[in-house]
Amino acid sequence: MINVKTPEEIKIMREGGKILSSVLFELLKNIKPGVTELEIDNLAEKLILKNGAKPGFREVKGYNNSICVSTNNVVVHGVPTHYKFKEGDVVGIDCGVFYKGFHTDMAETLRVKSQISNLKSQKVDEIDKFLETGKRALNEAIKIAKAGNRVGHISKTIQDIVEKEGHSIVRSLVGHGVGRTLHEEPEVPGFLEFDIKKTPVLLENMTIAIEVIYNMGKSNVKYLNDDGWTIATEDESISGLFEKTIAITKEGPLILTYS
To answer: pTM of the predicted model, to two decimals?
Structure first.
């Protein structure tokens, strides 16, 4: 069942989303060569609690961290480790906040750069273009998330943009509804599997997490180790992840995890 929210509930989610986006971008600023994944995880917990919220991912049974870290070939659900980031690493941070009974969910991916390299003019390469494609796909998908349209319109928008650039959509992982639980109906795939008319209608006051989960190589994924969570590309290619929580409103899509 799709849970449509009240205006007051959306207001609460917007407050939680503001906390989440501020925390996430503080985390991204702290990702530098020599910093470990666990240090970023610890910082996330500290910042979320300081803002009067709870780490949403810790509400998931069996998961004991505040973020998921997707470094290089890790796709999603990466459990933070003692790995130290290196210049050139591609790092995705997925984070959730639980605030006044409601979840918001957000992810960004960046390329690790040192202070010195940040000061220099950097030539745009394949990986930079890959990351730009994911951001663009998410932004365009959000624009089309309007009441009366369908989930399939979102899915097709993401798929068309990503595949046009020669990359692949991960088909075993999807976006989702979000609210009182972290994962609600409907599923929001980044690819179109059925006729658009057979996909769920976007209703006013629905709240969904739109995700672009994609690889530079093939779409196949695998569990990386025995932690039961970390999923990586099967061909060891670089992966990217971009996600925002939005509400479907009369005026159009409202980004709840705004930056």
So the answer is: 0.95
